[in-house]
């Protein structure tokens, strides 16, 4: 047995970029991408990706180089998921909801050689470039602008235009040039939160991406030729890896620059959409569309949702419209999907509200996950499968990330004891389904985006009048959760800064303004509560559960989101208005 | 990027045995196996496999040891697919259609430490043991008999009974003991043809099996909780890897000792069967059932067929009964399925006969295959995708075998030029679908089993009266193909041996008798044609196409298969009567 050696024929590295060449050969007449008037077939998409890869090579892009992109869900955003790793480089899709300062931090950390920028973010990126230190030449990536494909106006330097690179690229550069030699090599770099001090860049391997694609196709039961509507930003964990899945199934990508109820319903009917993924926030958008959009779908659309647990009532309303919701749980560190709430036919006989409770559970492990467990955080022992005893959700398997870029401390911490420690607290039921019972201690999930409580607290602490601050999640009708700050003002400062006569409202506005000046808007607390002191236990540890209890009863001032009309704008754009 | 190292949490070897533990945890109440009155749940199957693995360990089974099994589709046959590789050993399921002599050759070659034998094959195995040379002690495997689970009679030595080993095994032996440390380690050893001189034992890795399972689930669109009817022998490429797939999807295995029309229809209705796999020969059994069995199914059953191309007329008849046939192509050397005829909805609008022609094509590559191509056998260049130009089908990917056990020459030959060279001749259509146009030069496929023409010719040449022999496939109504021999008798012998007055019939019977004495019956020619000389080209090479042309027009004497009643007996049993 030992004498059999691996060879070129039987040891091919696993990478999802093989799905593109296969799609071009096996589905030659199928439409790969629709973006308004623009349509491509799979051979065209393959041709465009080969051309772009060859242009990147001629720009000296090579193995392990980082190539970043700041773009909405347009064809270029889809194409870079293949063309960048084809060259051996690592794709870094940047969250378009971030502010210039945070993007600058990411760019200094990731050190991309090239940064693709959609024209929509032209002024944002100019601000980012101003923030990069002038001394560090390597910190300046080469900018390549992405315009509308149909556009004939070239407002930017001709040499740095995406379509120009495609035109100039050589489609005949042998595909063997694009080979991945080791499946453990990185394919993408995804930042989990826009932090200013310690950015966490998750490095994903070709192997992890490939295996996640296969197991996600199975868990979401994505049959041949799906029509996939891009309501989920592709920058979010590479669109939960569905960028590659759609190629694997020979499907059609329906691009959307802006996620509005009108556009979603229009696209669903126009193209017979079969699948979409989104955070529960998008359900709100669907339900709160202005009435004319809200129609029962003529055929069911399978929706994968995750990011935060969907409330049962919301699920029921959305299902009534014709959406078949499947709940999944994942994290960037696990290359996307980890658990899926696999539906069992006999559950259809249960009362509706009970069905929705079952559906709100995160579910069972996908096939690419070797093991999932819930462990007592102190003893490290598995909790009983009783649906009651809480513990931390831990995972192992080949789809876990390689680690955090340039952050060995955080990498070692998250991987301690031979598991990926998710930081999420949950229970496990006798039927094997996992349910998250509490957010992990540090994370607030707002509109599907993670907000680190520690980072928000840091900014609050920077304010000269703040003595103590604690941030917890509070429920929000549109975003699911939003940060709520509890603040104790400095004793001496109380009178100096804010006179007795200044209202709570003014003090609150002042602190929120301070936050907005120092972090992305979506991370800012929407509510500040002033206390004489924070509730603490005997050891001086802040009693977070008590604060969460208070936050639950609070109401956000809805002056900027109360409008029922969620107009033009993707989730990120709506958010950036806030 | 280079500083990120693999660790226990993110680098878990890929192996299909993980699917069993997962099924026991995620589908704890689901039925895993039904075999007559016997029923198990997934936790019970997991428990039984752990116990058996622990017993195997206590019998000193260790990494890379071979454990063989000779059994029909009974629960034990299913369980060894998990319990044997759990110990690090290699499973060798032996074709039950083979004769004692061939099995003895396999056992001498594979050198199993243990041989599981179903009681049905008790006398066959006694014959096999007699054939093993007495001098070679390592050639004698330890025999463990498999009885009916419900049986209380223990006709064989108590220590060597399968159920006893399960009872004595320790289910609590930590599952970490069963870890596979390298996914490239072998999981199974499958012999491709019962040859006497040069057995070809295909060694399959855990990685290849795992990836084939995922990609087969996708290509056959096997949804959650399939009810899988075992019409395909599990010894055949590990049941085309569906042994492991059913565990991955939390399905139910319906075992069948004998494949009869009556039992197939009965099981389908009784258990709401959703899936089965079989060679086209089984379609004949379904259609030729004695009438009372033949009912239109109350719900559709998805049937994966392969082994030999199903004739369009046969497909159409079977589909009318309610079977949804999917055509696939695979080979043992590729761990099972390679191509699948992915059905496209728009084809439903074509005339029925055209649909069946499309369905008879072998199809497009599964996702675990890195590349499939059809190459000109002389120039090694890809043939044009015109559906006309023939070439050899070649494959590469991580699901290709590790090689042939103890046969470096055959391994090097099949892997030459960085591809697995299938030996099958086909064309590739503009839509990427591959169709096999001719059997590979050496192989005749009879009832799904490969017969090497060379081996049959060898036996014929051994006959003292034969001067020249050439064997080709001839069509057969039940088996798809059967060997047809063209023989030139020795000049001197013609008169000495067979007097002028001896009829052709007598001569033919004499040669077939000789074959039956020297090889498994299913490999014997059913027709012998005597010629003055074989047709040859200028270089003296026999013109096989000309012989095939003649063979096409011949009719087999149907005295032993003409009966419409295909009674009691699996495909292999029916065949062993022939």
Looking at the chains present, what oligomeric state does this protein adopt? homodimer
**Form type of chain A:** globular
Low-confidence stretches of chain A: 559-578
Strand order of the largest sheet of chain A: 2-1-10-9-11-12-13-14-15
Provide the β-strand percentage band of chain A: 15-25%
Give me the CATH fold name of the domain at 38-179 in chain A.
Rossmann fold
Q: Structural class of the secondary structure composition of chain A?
A: alpha/beta
What would your notes on this structure say?
- Two copies of one chain form a homodimer.
- Helices cover 32% and strands 22% of the residues of chain A.
- In chain A, the strands form six sheets. In chain A, strands 2-1-10-9-11-12-13-14-15 form a nine-stranded mixed β-sheet, with helices on both faces.
- Among the domains of chain A are: 38-179, Rossmann fold (3-Layer(aba) Sandwich); 443-577, ANL, C-terminal domain (GMP Synthetase, Chain A, domain 3).
- Chain A is of the alpha/beta class and 578 residues long.
- The interface between A and B is large, with 68 and 68 residues.
- Chains A, B: Residues 21-405 form the AMP-dependent synthetase/ligase domain.
- Chains A, B: Residues 558-578 are annotated as: Disordered.
- Chains A, B: This is 4-coumarate--CoA ligase.
- Chains A, B: Residues 455-541 form the AMP-binding enzyme C-terminal domain.
């Amino acid at each position: 047995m030992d004498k059999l050696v691996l060879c070129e024929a039987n040891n091919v590295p696993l990478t999802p970029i093989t799905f593109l060449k296969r799609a071009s050969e096996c589905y030659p007449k199928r439409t790969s991408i629709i973006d308004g008037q623009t349509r491509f077939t799979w051979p065209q998409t393959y041709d465009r990706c080969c051309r772009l890869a060859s242009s990147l090579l001629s720009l000296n892009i090579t193995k392990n180089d980082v190539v970043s992109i700041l773009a909405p869900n347009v064809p270029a955003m889809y194409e870079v998921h293949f063309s960048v790793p084809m060259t051996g480089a690592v794709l870094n899709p940047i969250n378009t909801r971030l502010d210039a300062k945070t993007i600058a931090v990411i760019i200094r950390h990731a050190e991309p050689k090239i940064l693709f920028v959609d024209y929509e973010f032209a002024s944002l990126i100019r601000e980012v470039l101003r923030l990069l230190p002038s001394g560090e030449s390597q910190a300046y990536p080469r900018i390549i602008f992405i315009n509308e494909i149909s556009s004939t106006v070239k407002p930017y330097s001709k040499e740095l235009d995406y379509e120009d690179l495609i035109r100039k690229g050589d489609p005949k550069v042998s595909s063997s040039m694009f080979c991945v030699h080791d499946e453990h090599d990185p394919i993408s770099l995804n930042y989990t939160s826009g932090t200013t001090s310690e950015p966490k860049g998750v490095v994903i391997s070709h192997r992890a991406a490939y295996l996640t694609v296969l197991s996600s196709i199975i868990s979401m039961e994505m049959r041949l030729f799906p029509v996939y509507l891009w309501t989920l930003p592709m920058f979010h964990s590479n669109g939960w890896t569905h960028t590659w899945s759609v190629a694997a199934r020979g499907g059609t990508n329906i691009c959307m620059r802006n996620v509005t109820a009108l556009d979603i319903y229009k696209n669903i009917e126009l193209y017979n959409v079969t699948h979409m993924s989104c955070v529960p926030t998008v359900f709100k958008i669907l339900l709160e569309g202005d009435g004319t959009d809200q129609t029962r779908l003529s055929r069911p659309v399978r929706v994968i949702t995750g990011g935060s647990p969907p409330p049962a009532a919301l699920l029921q309303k959305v299902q009534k419209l014709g959406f078949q919701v499947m709940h999944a749980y994942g994290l960037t560190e696990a290359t996307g999907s980890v658990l899926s709430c696999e539906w069992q036919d006999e559950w259809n006989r249960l009362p509706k509200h009970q069905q929705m409770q079952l559906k709100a559970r995160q579910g069972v492990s996908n096939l690419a996950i070797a093991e999932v467990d819930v462990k007592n955080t102190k003893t490290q022992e598995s909790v009983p499968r009783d649906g009651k005893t809480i513990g931390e959700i831990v995972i192992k398997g080949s789809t876990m990330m390689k680690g955090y870029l340039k952050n060995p401390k955080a990498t070692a911490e998250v991987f301690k004891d031979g598991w990926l420690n998710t930081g999420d607290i949950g229970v496990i039921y006798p039927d094997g389904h996992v349910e998250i019972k509490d957010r992990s201690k540090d994370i607030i999930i707002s509109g599907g985006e993670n907000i680190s409580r520690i980072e928000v607290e840091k900014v609050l602490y920077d304010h000269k009048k703040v003595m103590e601050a604690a941030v917890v999640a509070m429920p929000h009708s549109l975003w699911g959760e939003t940060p709520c700050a509890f603040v104790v003002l400095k004793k001496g400062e109380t009178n100096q800064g804010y006179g007795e006569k200044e209202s709570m409202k003014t003090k609150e506005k002042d602190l929120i303004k301070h936050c907005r000046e120092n972090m992305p808007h979506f991370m800012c607390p929407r509510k500040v509560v002033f206390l004489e002191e924070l509730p603490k236990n005997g050891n001086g540890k802040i009693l977070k559960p008590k604060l969460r209890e208070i936050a639950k009863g609070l109401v956000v001032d809805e002056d900027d989101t109360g409008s029922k009309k969620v107009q033009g704008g993707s989730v990120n754009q709506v958010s950036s208005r806030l």
